[in-house]
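Got a spare moment? Tell me how you read both lines of this record:
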Amino acid sequence: MHRRDATLREITTLIKGVHESARRRDARVHYAFIYPDTRGRMIARRVGIVNTSRVGDDDNVTLHELNFQIGDFLEVTIV
């Protein structure tokens, strides 16, 4: 996916379609951006958490609003 207008909820919905553990009622999906700093070291910046079964504050935030840059990695952790 390379749409910067995608929301964290939209990405979560896609993940739920392919990853069984994301379909649990109590599942949370944590998002972070991974990118190189000016010295070339990789930095991880947490950007949001989406609960799979209820609405939350981070659901409608877009990648653009979070300053996602083409070339950054999107880290996804299902808890």
